[in-house]
Amino acid sequence: MTIQEGLKHVLDTMPSTVKLVAVSKFQPVSAILQAYAAGQRAFGESRPQELAAKAPELPDDIEWHFIGPLQSNKIKMVLPYATLIHSVDTERLLARIDRQAALADKIVDCLIQLHIAMEETKQGFPVQEALEQVPLFRDKYPNVRIRGLMGMASFVDDMEQVRGEFRTLKSAFDKLQPRFPLFDTLSMGMSQDYNIAIEEGATIVRIGSTIFGSR
Fold this sequence. Notes:
By secondary structure, the protein is of the alpha/beta class. The chain has a single domain, classed as Alpha-Beta Barrel (TIM Barrel). It has 9 helices and 9 strands. Strands 1, 2, 3, 4, 5, 6, 7, 8 and 9 form a 9-stranded parallel β-sheet that branches.
């Protein structure tokens, strides 16, 4: 299957109201250009150095999403390019992003990552902690605009477990949404589970291997 065919397959299986972020991490510029030529504009990268190297070589109208773990000392590499940072998994990181954004005289759109999976290796705020703490962030960090939540379900064959984890994230989203004027983004679902994520309320899905093939 070509990249164009993979992209068409994904788009044909999801509603137009859900944004597709094509996960282009580890993919060469040539592969991204193939997806771009087929009409894709939103791409996801997970390494600051890779994003900073690729973005200047690619069209200016690409919408870059940073979806991976972000270290404080790499924030400056991401801010010039990222339309949305999905992976804010601690308040410490949020504070550092706010500080760097202030120095750059800009407002940065971010998602708060919640830990919804059974797997301990997944990152993010515990759900109850997020419900208590995230409303405080609105006024505390003026150079960050919190747009919603992100989460990763367990990598398991039990799709009912996955569905339950997505429902937990959607429930947290619904509770927090009234506290923020632009809280409109729920990023969940990847190649193996994006259909379930959409059924449970995702507004963004992050899909790589189904489009680009396995690395």
